[in-house]
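Troubleshooting: if your tokenizer reports a length mismatch, compare your output against this known-good record of 488 residues.
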Amino acid sequence: MNKKLLSLGLALATTATLAQDGGAAATAVAQVAEAATAAAPAVPVPDKGDTAWMMVSTLLVILMTVPGLALFYGGLVRSKNMLSILMQVMMVFSLAVVLWFIYGYSLAFTEGSSFIGGFDRLFMNGIWDNATGSFANAATFSKGVVIPEIVFAAFQATFAGITCALIVGAFAERMKFSAVLLFTVIWFTFSYLPVAHMVWFWMGPDAYSSAAVVDEMTGKAGLIWQWGALDFAGGTVVHINAAVAGLVGAYMVGKRIGYGRESMAPHSLTLTMVGASLLWAGWFGFNAGSALEANGFAGLAFINTLAATAAAVLSWSLGEALHRGKASMLGAASGAVAGLVAITPAAGNVGIGGALVIGLLSGFAGLWGVNGLKKLLGADDSLDVFGVHGVCGILGALLTGVFNSPALGGPGFVADWSTATMVTAADYSIAAQVWIQAKAVLLTILWSGVVSVVAYKIVDLLIGLRVSEEAEREGLDISSHGETAYNR
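Known-good structure output:
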């Protein structure tokens, strides 16, 4: 209760006691207490619909990874390495989730510096608020709207998990299992967490209570957020970040034995198709869930995820038909992933027309990434992590700056969080926003690249990166895990 109002109530009650009977005094106190309560700001209460949607979205992202990504990757490797890639995806995802709840969430999503957070939520401390006897709340993108922080933390845990799991496709079929896990710990800590903090951490809309505090609140946000970069669901944090780590790994681990001389064709395009389909289905939670509310922006992200992915399937297949004379199932599945990657940063930031253009361009860009660019780079990126996630992630991040423009059907961005005022078409500069997007992309590439080189080198010095030649020829299923995917 406001102290000034309470003092006024007591004064009025005293006056009433002198002039009237005790009943009148009680009435006076009650009236002023009522006024004070009405004047106090209401504490936001999570909406059950928003909370339910975020829990469903979290489940969908898990579906993307296990089994979606695992089966997509699994079908692409040779049969002797099928179980090893399934094991790597599941274990890396699980490891990242555990680390997330120990210290990852705190370093990514609490106030610290512009590069990394603090330890306020170490071991998820403070998620349960003893003072109020309820769970702490997390901000969304609307003033006065919150969700339980424990739900937000779980949702973001799945992002950390799938990002780390994406990397394993680049060095599939030849890296030690123990080396994969140790690398994950180092890279998660020093690349994923800082980039996530720089891109996504801010003080929330309710912190911008007036124009006077705007600069102060913005100064507490992550560096890339301060720049004004737009990344709705992880173009930089997830795809570019992981792709660079994968490319560095492909160079440092080295090429597979027989690469370029022996057939290394996918052993089961059926499973790859199943995996791609699960990725597409789960990606609706990934993108639409990033609205953090069950609202129109979630709906926009949902339909853009559908439209862009379908467009990318068509354009990749068309490109293959023009280039090779035939469209392949592998191409269609890869096109779906390319579209999903490219629309990720743009999902809630562009109109449907922009999403279709991004999808169409990403199909062609991904096709070039796994053919032309791969040859130029000369790396054995086994499952084309950089060719798809890197190339299409960069494309999507840059085109977000173009199609976010209200003049091109985009929603624009909030120009003033103290009043939640959106930028107008007249004030939107495509060139300026694309430059901001480019800076975010370049910083992510540099950060992940440097951390990855150091991480792989540390792992190599401690336990070695690569299995023996004999183990690689036998297959990692038997040599690393003592089992096989299929009866021989």
